[in-house]
Structure formats: C-alpha cells, structure tokens
Amino acid sequence: MNSAVASVREVRSRLLLAQEIALIDVRDEDAFARGHPLFAAQIPVDRIAAEAPWRLPRRDVPVVVYDAGEGLALRAAEILADLGFTEVAVLDGGLQVWRDAGLELFEDVNSYAKAFGELVEHRRHTPSLPAEEVQALIRQKADIEILDARRFDEYQVMTIPTSTSVPGAELVLKARAVAPNPDTTIIVNCAGRTRSIIGAQSLINAGLPNQVHALRNGTIGWTLAGQALERGQQRKPPPVEPAVQDAARQEARAVAYRAGVKRIGQAELDALLRDAARTVYRFDVRQPDEFVVGHLPGFRSAPGGQLVQEADHFAPVRGARIVLWDPVGPRADMTASWLAQMGWQVFVLDEGASAAVETGPDGAPPPRGPEGRYRRPYEGTDHQQTAMQAYLDWEYGLVAQLERDGTHGFFVI
C-alpha cells in the first residue's frame, strides 16, 4: 500500500484552525509517554482493529498516524484502510521530523489535560494545602472533609485517611451532602495534581460557601511527606436531598453558561448527527453503574471527571463536537464547562430528553494487557520517590511548555 503522507506543517495548521484531525501515535504506551505532540492520541498498532472503530466514529475523518522510525505507521495505515477509513495519512518523517522542526514534545499520558490543569491553577491561583498541614488537621479532628476526586477503584487502592470517594463530576452535586455545614473546610485530592485542581476549582466556580482547597500534589505528595495512606476503603456520600440537588443544578448551569456551553434538545442533536462532515461524540457522564441501569441510545459511558482527565482517550478527534447528557444536570454542565475551556465545541442535552432507554454496558473494547504499558510514578518502581518527585517537577513545567507549543486554544473562566 502506498499511503498518503501529511507534513508537520499540515498537521499543525489543522490544529491551529480547529479543523478535525486524529493524530494517532501507534507505538506502545510506554514509548508514547516518553514524548509526543500535545494533541496526539495513542492506539498501539495491535489494538487498532479493536479501538479505532470505537474511538474514531466517522470513517472519513482525517487520520494521521506516526511512529518514531519503527516501521509501525505504514502497517497502521493499512489496518485503518482495511477498516474502511478513507482519509488516512502517515506523518512525513514521523516523530523525528516533529522534533527537528523545533516543536514541543510532551511526556506522560493525558498530557494536555494535565497541562490544562496546571494552567487553571496558574490563572486562578487555586488554593491548596500541603500534605503535612492536612495531616495535622486530621489529627486535630478539625472540621474538614476530604473528597477523593478519582475513580472509585483508584480510591479503593489507596487514599488519604478519612476521605470520601466523590469522583470529579460528582463534586458539585454531592459535596454539600458530605459537608452540609458551610463552615466545614473541603479538601479535594487525587493521585497527583490535575483532578485535585480541577475538582477544587469546580467547587469554587460553582460558588460553594465552604473554604475549598486542593491537596497539594495529592497522594504522591502525601507519600513523599512520609505519611501513611489508607487502603480498601468504601466511603461514599450520603443520598443528595432534592433541595441540594436543585441548588447544584442552578450553580452548575451558571458555570456552563459562563464557559459558553450551549444547551440543546433532541431536534438539535438530530441535526448534529445528520451533518456527515463532522464527528460527534455522545457521552453519558454519570458513573458506570448508573449507565448500565439505563442510558440513551448512542451515548457512551464516560464519567465526567475522567472525560476531562482522559479526553485524548475518549475523544481522539481534535476539533470534533461533543454532546453530554446527565438526567440530573450538574455533572454534564460541570464537565461541559471544562471541556469548553479546553477548546472543544461542547453541548449539553437537556435533562428532560426522554428517548428510548437502553440498558447494559456500552460495548467498549476490552482493556489493554500489562505489556508495553507506561508505569505511573505512584504505582511503584525501584526508585519510587525519585520518580514521584520527577513527575511533580514535570507537571510544574507544563504551563511554560503550553506557551512554547502554541496550539492549545485553552482559556480559563
């Protein structure tokens, strides 16, 4: 197969003009994490057949694949063509040409979400507390509530003592159920920095009356301070009262409005789907257990906090449209507010949409194996503390990298 080629200049131009493009790194995750363009998404060549139809819903979307000279890109282009993708090109010269052009390469995974989180803290000065100070507050039995903004399975592996699991998009909806007293200080944590920052700033943006802080550097910072984590915890928020739910709905909608999010009904969604020249992602941003019980046809499960954190995984087509749904409202509105600030054209489908409901999982491809996977710095290495500190140092440098790169289009309300 003689594949078409795309130049670095052409790829960068599409990113700057917000035109649709899927820039796909076809190496394994570990190699990808060592350096890639900001908006690249990663699909290893041996997973393309399973993942591409799921992650690239429009077969004539412009796709550019690349490697670092391993010879994987041509094979990937052939597989995509066999799957029916008609606008596939190989990046001319691969990753080395991107580097030779003096363009930025970003390390780690979910890099642009992490860079965006750092920009939010830089612009909004999101308040944070160091691990040692939070530990002292716990010992003093101070009036605090620690909310863990990660997935529940991550929370169960290890978490801050006394914390409650409240995944990111649930925070505005459920924080008052955990901390009904406005005098209670709320501290939001994750494993590192991004979800702590975005979670804390979500509550601040929504106007919660409590003092709100991020836990500086999350469980990584906690470990580096020599403090013990809890394991196997099950703490979840109590049920949300109707009045609290109504307040959260109004607050979240106001935040989405400030971010320029548009609300649509079924007729407008149908019109978006009829536009064959544009990619539309439809996501149900509730927790997976709620999704399985009942969801709208065509919507895929993407819990809001993880959608913001892993946008490159859920929506590899940069420049696509995104439609979110949550029958209660706040989770979709808060998620949409962040995606809009990350440069996405995002819509919220009105909660009242009542099309036929489907049940069961969304049929996503099975998880990838242990092989070729990037080991996160909090997962344990021979030099764990050194790796953790290096990871934090990398995150602190992301704002400067964004400025040098110049393609992001982010804004912060």
Q: Can you characterise this structure?
A:
With 413 residues, the chain is an alpha/beta fold. 41% of the residues lie in helices and 13% in strands. It is built from 19 helices and 15 strands. The strands form three sheets. Strands 1-5-4-2-3 form a five-stranded parallel beta sheet. Helix 10 links the parallel strand 9 (185-189) and strand 10. The longest helix is centred in the middle third of the chain and has 17 residues, at 242-258. The termini are far apart.
Number of strands: 15
The chain-level mean pLDDT equals: 95
Most strands sheet? 5 strands, parallel
Secondary-structure-derived class: alpha/beta
Main sheet: which strands, in order across? 1-5-4-2-3
Ends distance: 47 Å
Shape: globular
Number of helices: 19
The helix fraction, in percent, is 40-55%
Please give a handful of descriptors for the protein shown.
globular; five-stranded parallel sheet; 15 strands; single chain; alpha/beta; about 425 residues
Sum this structure up briefly:
This protein is α/β, with parallel strands linked by helices and 413 residues long. Helix content is 41%, strand content 13%.
What's the helix and strand layout?
Elements (H helix, E strand, L loop, with lengths): L3 E3 L1 H9 L5 E4 L3 H5 L7 E2 L5 H8 L7 E4 L5 H11 L5 E4 L2 H7 L10 H14 L3 E2 L1 H9 L4 E5 L3 H6 L6 E2 L5 H8 L6 E5 L4 H12 L6 E4 L2 H7 L17 H17 L3 E3 L1 H9 L5 E5 L3 H6 L6 E2 L2 H6 L1 H4 L6 E5 L4 H12 L3 E5 L34 H13 L1 H8 L8
Parallel strand pairs: 1-5, 2-3, 2-4, 4-5, 6-10, 7-8, 7-9, 9-10, 11-15, 12-13, 12-14, 14-15
Helix pairs in contact: 6-10, 6-19, 9-12, 11-18, 12-17
